[in-house]
Every structure is written in C-alpha cells, then in structure tokens.
Amino acid sequence: MLRRRLNRWFGGEDRRVDSRTIYVGHRPCPANEVFIPPKFCDNRIVSSKYTVWNFLPKNLFEQFRRIANFYFLIIFLVQVRASFVCMPTQTVISDIIFFKIRTSWLPLVFLTVLICSQGYEDWLRHKADNEVNKYRVTVLEDGRRIQKESEKIKVGDVLEVDEDETFPCDLILLQSSRDDGTCFVTTASLDGESNHKTHYTVPDTERDVESLNATIECEQPQPDLYKFVGRMHIYKNNEEPTLRSLGPENLLLKGATLKNTQSICGVAVYTGMETKMALNYQGKSQKRSVVEKSINAFLLVYLCILVSKALVCTTLKYVWQSKPGQDEPWYNEKTLKEKETNRYLNMFTDFLSFMVLFNFIIPVSMYVTVEMQKFLGSFFISWDKDFFDSEIEEGALVNTSDLNEELGQVEYVFTDKTGTLTQNNMEFIECCIDGHQYKYRDASSEVDGFCVTDGPMNTVQQKAGREREELFLRALCLCHTVQVKESTEGFIASSPDEIALVQGAMRYGFTFLGLESKTMKILNRTNDVEMYELLHVLNFDPVRRRMSVIVRSISGETLLFCKGADSSIFPRVKQEEVEKIRMHVERNATDGYRTLCVAYKHLTPEEYDQVDSGLREARLALQDREEKLMAVYNQVETGMNLIGATAVEDRLQEEAAETMEALQGAGIKVWVLTGDKMETAKSTCYACRLFKRNTELLELTVRTLEYPGKRREDRLHDLLLEYHKKTVQDAPPAKTRVARNWSSQDFGFIVDGATLSMVLNSSSENNLHDYKDLFLQICQNCTSVLCCRMAPLQKAQIVKMVKNSKGSPITLSVGDGANDVSMILEAHVGIGIKGKEGRQAVRNSDYAIPKLKHLKKLLLAHGHLYYVRIAHLVQYFFYKNLCFILPQFLYQFFCGCSQQPLYDAAYLTMYNICFTSMPILAYSLFEQHISIEMLLENATLYRQIGKNAMLRWGPFLYWTLLGVFHGLVFFFGVWFLFSNPALQDNGQAFGNWSYGTIVFTILVFTVTLKLALDTRHWTWINHFVIWGSLAFYVFFSFFWGGVIWPFLRQQRLYFVFANMLSSVSAWLVIIVLILLSLLPEILYVVLRKLFLFNFNQKSVKGIFCHFSGLSNVFASRWKSLVVFILFFGVFFIFFLFFYCV
Amino acid sequence: MMASSYSAKDEDGHITVSGPGGGTLRNKKPENTAFKQQRLPAWQPILTAGTVLPAFFIIGLIFIPIGIGLYVTSNNIKEFEIDYTGDDTSSPCYNCAQNFSWNNTKSCTCIIPFQLDQPYESNVFMYYGLSNFYQNHRRYVKSRDDSQLNGNIDSLKKPSKECEPYASVDNKPIAPCGAIANSMFNDTLKLFYNDPNGTSVPILLTSTGIAWWTDKHVKFRNPGGNNANLTAVFQGTVKPVNWHRPVYELDTDPENNGFINEDFIVWMRTAALPTFRKLYRIIQKNNNMAPTLPRGNYTLVVDYNYPVRSFEGRKRMILSTISWMGGKNPFLGIAYITVGSVCFFLGVVLLVIHHKYGNRNNSANISN
C-alpha cells in the first residue's frame, strides 16, 4: 500500500497522462507513432508489510510508537547503564540489582516475542502472496501457448483462461469459446453478487487473436468496479484502423471467475497492484482498541506523576542536604568517588535513581497481564458452543485478540446484505392473481403438487378464473431473461429473483424449457409444449424499473408481458384493476418480500408493426440511443392489463431480524452497505425490521436526483437540505429522543453509490464540506441507513467517514465476501461470516463467526464482559501500583530523600509478578458482573458501557484517589505506630524493614480484598486464586525470611516477618488499616445500591431498571467522590477528636 | 488478503494468520464444559444494606471496646524520658557536648538527676533514643556486610564493597565494616537510685535479651564459631574508625562479645524513622513485692562519647514499662475507637437511609 501511495505522490508522470496505450500482444502497430514499449507495473501482488531488509527497523519503529514500549526501553537502558557503567553513582539499582536486572529484561523479552509473532504473520502473508504470484497461467505468444507465472504477466500479454479459473489480472475480452461472443462471469469475490454476469467480446477481434494487431487506449487505473472507458484501434492490412469503444462489459476483472464458458482469451490492461481489485484492497493496518488508547492516556498521566515525584524528591534531597550536617554527617560519609563526582551529574543520577525507584508505578506487568487476558480471554469466544454451526462444522474464529473489549464498545454496525443478512437464496412465496391470494404450500407436504387437477391451486380456493391463472403463469414463464444451463437443467440469470419466479411458475405447472433461436418453449400443465416466438426484449433498467417481452404465440397473437415494481406498473395499467392488487403488494412489501407486478397487453398487428419499427429505429440510432429507446418503451408499455403480483422472499439468515433488533436495542446503529440493487436491499431491510412500517424513508439515489428542469447537483443540494431539516433541525433534542425512540418518527435513509460519490467527491463544488457534513448528520439521525450499489472501496469510505466523524464512534463491519474485505479492514472491528463466498472475509477479519445471529452474543455478552473485565483490569492495575509506590514515595521524606526503598527488593519484584497478579487475571477472565443470559435478554445493558464509560477520566480519577487514599492510610497508619518502635511484648524494637513489611502486608491484603469486593462472580478459581495468593504471600514471607540466603549480600528480611507476626500491635494495625481502607468502598457500594433502588422506582418501571444501576455506577463516579470526601472528612474529624482527647 | 482470493483452491482457508486457537477449532465442536462455556458454578455475593448494616454495627461494637482497651493499656504504661543532649547551658551534659572531640581517649561523664513520680512495676525497659539521626539513609542502610557478620572468614578479610568508605583502613579490613557498625552508639548509661536515706544504690541493668533471638543466634555469628578465641580470630583486622575498643572487647562475657554482642546487634537493626529508640538495658523485676523502680530520686550517669551536635541530633534516655502490645503508643487505641465509631455512625446513618428509602423497594430486588 505504501508503494501505491508513493506512486500517487511521486509518480507524477503517470498521473498527468490520463490514459494508457496498450499494444495487444506487444506487436508494434503500423500507426504513425513510434513503438515504445510502455512501462507498467508487473503483476505481482504485495500484501505483506515488510521485506527481509526493512523488517527490523520498520517493525521496531512501529513498536516504539507505543509509548509504553518506548518508556520501558528507556527505563531498561537507565538501569543497565546505571548498574554497569556508572557503578559509583550507586543508584538504588545496585541495592536491588539481583532482581532488578531480571525484571527489567521482562518487557524486552515481551517485545521480542511480539516482534517475532509479527514477523511470522508477515511470513504467512508472503507465502500467500507467493502462492498467487507463482500461479501458472497460459500466455499466447506468437501463436504459441506458454505457461508463465502469474507475476510475470505484463500489460499487453494475451492470456487464455479456462472455465472456473479466476482472472489473474484485468483483461479485455477478445475471444470467447461461446458462439455469441459472450462469456459468463461471477464477481462474488469482488462485489458479492453471485449471479452470472455476461461480458462481451470486442467485435472484430473474435477470429484472429493470434494475429490481431491492435492498440488499446484506456484510462488510468481507478478503483470503481463498474466504470471503464477505453477504445481499441484495430489495424488490418494497412486499412484505415477500425475504432471500437470499450466499456465495462468488455473488461474482465481480476478476482472474478469464469463460468459456463470453456475458455476465453483476453489482453491484460491492468496488472498487479493496478488492478481494480487491488485498488479496492485496503492495507491491513494494526488496529488499536479504545482501551489501549485509554491506557496510553493514563500512562502519560502516571508518567507525569512519576517524573514529578522524582523531581520533587531530587529537589528536596538537595534542599535537605544543604542544611549543615545533613549531607554528610560523621556517621555516614560518602565514598571518595561520590565526593569527586560532579554535582550536576550527581543531581542527574539522583533523578534517574528516583525514576527507577518509582518506576513500579508504571506497571510493566499490566501490559503482560493485559496481553495474557486478551490472549486467554479470546479462547472463550472460540470455545463458545453457541457459536458452533453444525452445518459447516465450525465455531467462531479469533484472528486477533487485541480487540476483544472493542466488541463491547460498538456504536455502528455496517453489514453487508448478500450472504450476511440474507442467504442470497430467492424463493417464490406467493402470488396474487386478480386480487386473490395464492400461497404455495410446500411440495413435500403435497405429494402431487404439480398436478393440474389436484395441484397447489386446489389447496387454496380457486378464486380467479383458470384462464387468468394460466395467463399469469405464462407471463411468468415468458417475461424474463433467464437461460437454461445446458448441463444441469438449472437456470442462469442476471438476477436471482428472476430464477425464483421461473421456478415458482414451474411449481404451478408451467415449466420454461429454454430459448432456442428466438423461440421460447414452455411445458404447460397438460404437459404440452407451447412455443412462443420472442420478438423483443425490453430490458430492465433501474430508472424504468420494469422489463417487458413481446412474444408471438403459435396462434399468431402478439402479446406484451411486462413485470416490474408496483410504482412503475400501476400508472400504466387500467386503474380499475389496481386497487385489488395494491393491497396485497403493500402487505407483501412490508413483510419484506420483493414484489413485482405482472401485466400484459394484446398488441394488434398494426400496433406491433409500429412498435417494431420504432424499436429498430431507436436501436440503430447513433445519438441519444438510450433516450429514444426509452421513449419507445414508455410508449408501448401503456394501457396494459394488470394480472397479478408476485412475492419473492430473499431468505434471511437465521434470526437475522432478531439480531438486528437486539443490536438496535443495544443502541447500536445498523447500516446496510450492499452492492446490490436498491429494491432488493430495501425489502431486506424491511424483512430485518431495520425499516419498520412507520419508518419514513429518505431516498438519495439516482432516481430521486432525476428531477425535471434541474441539474443533478442542484437537486442533490436541495434534497440534502430538505432531509437535514427533517431529521436534524426538526428533530427533538437527542435526550428526549432516546427516551421515546419507539414513539417518535423514525427515519430510514437510502443512498446509492453514484450519489454517494457525488456527495463525497464533488471536490470542485465550493460547498463540498457542507455536503459531507450534512450527509453525515442526516445519517446519524436516522435509525437505519441503507447504502446500495456500493463498490467495495465505497463501503470502506463510508466506514471511514463515520469512524472519523465527531466523537469517533467505534465501528464494526460484518460481511462474508471479498467485497466486504475493505470495510472489514477499515472498521475498528471486522467480523467475517463463514459464508459460502469463500474465505477472504474470514481471513481478513478480526473475528469470524459462522452466522450473523452469533453477532448478538458476540457483542452483547462477550463484548460487554470483555470490556468490563479489561477496563477493571486496567484501572485496578494503575490503582494497585499507585498505592504500592506512594508509601515508598512518602518514605523519602523520612529518610532524607536518599532513594531508600521502603520494601525489600524481593517484595518490590514479586508484588506485581506473584502476590497481586493472579487474582486480577482470574477476575479479568471469569468475571460476569451480570450473567450472560441477562445480558442477552436485555440488550439495553449494552448501552451502559458505551463511550468507554469505565475508562474515562471520571472513573480514572476515582481509582487514582482511591489509590492515594490507600497509600496514605498505609504509610501514615504505620508511621503513627512507629512513633514508638518498641512493638513487641519483650520491649524489643522494630527497624525499617519491619516498617516496610507491615506496610507491604497491609498493601497486599487490602489490594486483594478490594478486588474480592469487586468480584461479583466467585468461581472456585477466583476463590483459589484470591485466597491462594494471600496464603502464598504469607508462606513466601516466612520462607524468604526464614533462611539465610547465601546469594544475598544482605539478610535484611531475616525473620522480620515472623517477628512482625509475634507482635500484637502489628496484627492490630494491619487489621484496622485494612478495614479502614476498604470502608469507603463498602460504603459506596451500599449507598449506591440504596439510592439506585430509590431512583429507579421513581423513574422507570420494568425489569431492567434494576440493572441500569450499572450505568449509573459509571455515570455517578463523581457522586462517589463526594461520598469519598465525606467519608474522609468524617474519619478525620473523629480521629482528631480522639487524638486530642 | 487480496492475493489469496486469486485461486479458488485456497478457499478452504488454510492460511489462518495468527490468533489463538485458530487451528485447533477446525471441524471440532467446542466442548460443552462448564469452564469453556463460562458456566462455572459461582457464588454471587451482593453487598446490600441488609448484609452490610449488621457488619457495620458488629465492627463498631467490637472495635470500640478493643480501642478503649488498647487506649487504657497504653495509658497504663509508664514512661519516663530524659533528654541529655546537652546543648543547653543548664544541662549537666553541656560541657561534655561542647568539649567533645574524637581524639579524647578519656570519656566525659555527666550526671543527670531525675525523679520518678510513680513506681514502675514489672520489668522496666531502658531505651536510648536518637533524633534526627538518619539510620534509614540509603547509603547508611546498605553499608554493612551481613556475611561478615554471619562469621564468614572470607568476608572478614575482604569486606564487601558496600561498606565503603568504612571497608578498610590502610588496606586492613575493618571488622565489623560499614557505616552502621562504625557509628555504633557508645554512650554508657548507668542508673542509680537515691535512697531517701542518702545512699546511692546502683540499679542492675541486664544487657541480654535486648536483641531478636534469631539475630543473636543465627544471623550474627563470630567468625570461627562462638567459642573461639576472638582476639585470634580478629587478627589482621582493624576496629572501626570511631570505636574506642575493637569488636572482641565489647563485653567480657564470651556469649555477648564480638559480633554477637547484643548492643551491637540492636544497633545494626536500622531504625525506620530518623527519630527512634533502641532497647538498651532491661531492669528485671524484683522477686519481692516491691516495685522494680520505686518512686523517688534517681541519677543517670552518662559516659558521653557519642556526638550528635554536628547534625543537630538529640539523645534521650527512656524508661518504660511494656504491655502485651509493646511500648506506650496511644495511636492504636485511637485508631480502633475512631474506626469503630465511624462504622457505628455510618451504620446508624445507613439504617436511617435504609428505612427511609430502602424498605419498600425490596420487591424490586431481583437477584442476578
């Protein structure tokens, strides 16, 4: 991708030329210009990030972009330098050298592992690239077929591609094995449309590909899949070159697959990274979760605290030393080297020493624990049996564990339609003939379902006349562009619902046998073959929204059958018939079915002659061909007789509607981004209940932009303003809207790709920024948004636009096809559905699930829990290290700011590694503050953790204050006790290591019990780990103090712990200080509960109001501060009172 | 990866980049175990007013009596403190303090009379207290060699670098090395009871049992075992610069000499705060019913060897009885009474709130 960007910035040469010239087969042309073999990029695909050469520097650079990694590197260097190079400075490190060096290696090891794993990932990418690049393709060169590696293809090469192969680059179709110069292609991996598309050869190239002498002039590569402009000069034996225009119908895209055609020949026009597919591919960038960003922010705060602590201490040290007799009293002289060292250097090393002493405040172990939590936690997703799909025999797949918690923060879901929301499996549901409803009952229950007399018609009352019925079915059988697939008796059509209709008619007894030399054959109910001569096909187009055929029956009757959207048919039929059918159509439409109305018309020979000549004339027209055709179409498709309507269901995925509803209930906005047609997508939205009956649809499509007498740009402007007024300005303020969001007017917004690119790209317009903003504001105020006719890159653009909008909401993309890859990569979280359309989406996703319905549990249960867990983990880590280091900081005021550690080195090291690490890890893996069932039932619970609720500054401040409070209590509680260090009943006194050990014991117990208070879900593991780590602490302390360690230079802790336990005072102080530290928390929890009950009773009724407590917890952290301060005040007053007494 | 969409063969997706458990999942139904499905049986406690209120009251009811008990105990401890720094002209030690010089071989003695208003029963503990003495300074704390003190011969001859600049003199190792040992408190304190009949009775001061048992018996050892000839063992070492006597002459009792001298051990346990006290002597209680130290007049005789004026320190002598909770310290009692009262107070407040708002909402209490 970098290369592409570079090309864009530096390849100015390329840019300036708007078109490229390609010499087919590299044959020089007899044209007047000189043949210069042009330079194009090769056909190599590069999706890997690194090469062997740039891996280390580039990866290291990326690693150190993380503040934490950089910080740990610095600290490591300081420690190594301080301990090895300048021994005389004698920083704290030399005190605790034994452990310190080992622990400071930890992050480095961690980093190495990280780098290695990224290297491995990139190696896999290289391998995948190679597989593609080394794929053998057939190149026609000078009449010979040569096998070549795919990456060696050059622009201008003539390639041969066989059936079911994928095109290795973008080709212009020159020759097809089919007689009619067409070939069929599926672009499922590009845009998700699994139907067959017809592409056409360039006329005149058919016969002589071997000796074809031609040049192609075409535009420079651009990502739009549906656009291509070019022309071909064909030179024949010094004749005047023939000029052929090329369009997208001649272009075969890389990534598409050849179907139903034996082989084709084509000339490569775009290769490698310049193919439309590659241009639509987004580089896989490393995704970082909001939590990580929060951690970085907190880290900066703590870094500031750390630096200021070190500064304060350094300053105080020199202030203190400046007093006579303090710096170097007779009992504590400096060594010679210390005396000689420069004063300023001393200051600096002192500063660094303080940094090292306090560096525990920035927990290395947190990063390790967070990584472990993410890694281990993600197993729960892949282990979840609810995600197991028996059909494909697979469960969920976790490709990255970095984003678990992001699943709990999603605000926008972008979903693909085909294959994700729907199964892309059209089914004929019912029809309506003359206002009578015919519902097809399943053939399995009706053994002879196709029988005439006892057919499905009988299952419903015969309401319409038989004649009408048969007319209707004939219309279904004739009015389409379906082809019969030779080999398998299946149907091929450009749109799956046409197949559904033909199949529907088949079930009612009319089978379409195929089209042979302009004759359509139908097998009717009496098993007779009916023949119709196909006279004209009036093609479907999105503006007309209908298609017609004109056929002539054996009896010589000329008939026009027309089918199309109700809105385009109703005005063109006799009005008395409309009302009966309109009702059905509307009901079907709101049920989410695709409805089509069918009409017919008898054409008298005179009429037909007129039409025929009109059509021929229009088709031959050189100018305004389209308009002229349209005029004829419109003219002939009038005054028809409405026969009936059909309803086709685009089968939804299992529980798709429920999932969508749950997501909306969770406050997530669902946008459907599809490459499909608007009608199909709209009906799917209805079926998924994204659009509801009362939803007011705002359309911004090519169709609505067609407005007589106005430029499209102006119309766009008007519409945008109008919609904006409707949705944003007239809407009640957001707060009230949330409360009554079911009662107020919902808006659905529909936009299509062409219009979207007008909105986004019309850079020449001066009010462009307004457009984008207006558009975004409208979108954000609509409950659902439907974007249809989207190219893959446009999907990504939409995601990007929302992602970068105000408040930078968290986005999630879900899709199953290769066309969704770009949006999956673009969104914060990308979900791949393990669908039928291959694995690209799954491979590029962060999480892959078998079915859409799994999204609900993934977000509502897993996401929610992960977020709560990790947020608590992060806050807790900062908290526990703050109250760990604060006493050490305070101790500096009592030891002459001499960097004397309060705790023993073993404690300093083990605190984060052993004593307090396991409980929080267990908590962050197993906590379920609300049970999974409850989370799934009450989608609204999801809203409570939205917007990073637990990691905002409020909660952070709360935790920090709690840490400070605890630190103060620990230190000064023991300080008061040590005003008389004779604490044993034999009058013996305690020293500084006892002081530290008492503080440390209180610390470990308080911090662990604090977590125990927070734990709502005590599995045996939690019990084991919490009580186990406390027991381990006690055991370790005995052990550590019970032996004279030969490798230790100082036996500081020898029997300190045991002696401490022999002192009743120590016991008493430990108990009272632990209790005192935990009191505010307990009080806070209880008060919260009391007030919340009260609050909830008054405000909202309903079951989940009970749980909305949680939201208020996070929202009311500020209130908690008040409680906190009040408590502290009360405590202080009491203390003073008693002390004075 | 876009590349992989190229060939249809690769559609089975065998390239799974990263991710835990990615490979193991294939074609395998997740096990339906409670652990893997996050359905482990769990205890789900909720702190409610109902559970916390009694706890508060109980804590209050337990802590307040304990606090009162502690407070009373602490108040019953008798403590007498006398500052003999001698920076005041009126102080008997003024002269000694003024004339102090490291070169004085003859110690300066000062006599301080004092009066005990109350009789001291049971064992009485005699402490010396120092102020503004930073025994917890980092440079100081680490300036020792524990392996030397543990009787290691190698360390005796070659003290650890940590002892610098008190490791050696003229290339001869110092034993015991380091700043802590070097600055050992060397005032001698003697106590006399002035009998009302005019005679001055010396009070017997026990100098053993003042150090931790483990320190005396395990952590500190004389080189070559405790029964060896100390003078021979310490041959080749020099005494710390500021000491008057070498380490093997600290006491005449071989059980209390050399590194295992208890005064030395006590000093080597560095104090936590710059103002501290260390146990000096124990006055064992008499066998008869008379108080250990009856009320009356006493004389403290100090051999003034230890200079503190240079760093504005102070020296004290403390006589104290000891309870089961140690020396006199009202803090614990106050802390317990405070926390107990706060709990009780909060209990009452909560109860009021609970009754006012809580009760009628109990119906909504759906367990989660």
From TrEMBL, chain A:
Q: Which Gene3D superfamilies match?
A: Calcium-transporting ATPase, cytoplasmic domain N, Calcium-transporting ATPase, cytoplasmic transduction domain A, HAD superfamily/HAD-like
Instruction: Please report the name of this protein according to its UniProt entry.
Output: Phospholipid-transporting ATPase
Taxonomic lineage from the root: Eukaryota, Metazoa, Chordata, Craniata, Vertebrata
Q: Which SUPFAM superfamilies match?
A: Calcium ATPase, transduction domain A, Calcium ATPase, transmembrane domain M, HAD-like, Metal cation-transporting ATPase, ATP-binding domain N
One GO term in the molecular function aspect is: ATPase-coupled intramembrane lipid transporter activity
Q: Using the record's annotation, list all stretches that form the P-type ATPase C-terminal domain.
A: 842-1091
Annotated source species: Oreochromis niloticus
Query: Keywords for this entry?
Result: ATP-binding, Cell membrane, Endoplasmic reticulum, Endosome, Lipid transport, Magnesium, Membrane, Metal-binding, Nucleotide-binding, Phosphoprotein, Translocase, Transmembrane, Transmembrane helix, Transport
CDD domains reported for this sequence:
P-type_ATPase_APLT_Dnf-like
E.C. no: 7.6.2.1
What family does this chain come from, according to its entry? Belongs to the cation transport ATPase (P-type) (TC 3.A.3) family. Type IV subfamily.
Please provide the Gene Ontology terms (biological process) for this protein.
phospholipid translocation
Return the InterPro entries for the record. ATPase_P-typ_cyto_dom_N (IPR023299), ATPase_P-typ_P_site (IPR018303), ATPase_P-typ_TM_dom_sf (IPR023298), ATPase_P-typ_transduc_dom_A_sf (IPR008250), ATPase_P-type_domA (IPR059000), HAD-like_sf (IPR036412), HAD_sf (IPR023214), P-type_ATPase_IV (IPR006539)
From TrEMBL, chain B:
An example of a Pfam family matching this protein is CDC50
Output one GO BP term. Answer: phospholipid translocation
**Which compartments does it reside in?**
Apical cell membrane; Cytoplasmic vesicle, Secretory vesicle membrane; Golgi apparatus; Membrane
Instruction: Write down the membrane topology.
Output: Multi-pass membrane protein
InterPro entries listed in its UniProt record: CDC50/LEM3_fam (IPR005045)
A GO CC annotation recorded here is: apical plasma membrane
Q: Name the residues that span the membrane.
A: 46-72, 331-353
Question: Where are the stretches annotated Disordered?
Answer: 1-29
Alphabetic keyword roster: Cell membrane, Cytoplasmic vesicle, Disulfide bond, Glycoprotein, Golgi apparatus, Lipid transport, Membrane, Transmembrane, Transmembrane helix, Transport
Its family remark reads: Belongs to the CDC50/LEM3 family.
**Protein name per the record:** Cell cycle control protein
Q: What is the lineage of its organism?
A: Eukaryota, Metazoa, Chordata, Craniata, Vertebrata
Give the gene name.
Answer: LOC116329569
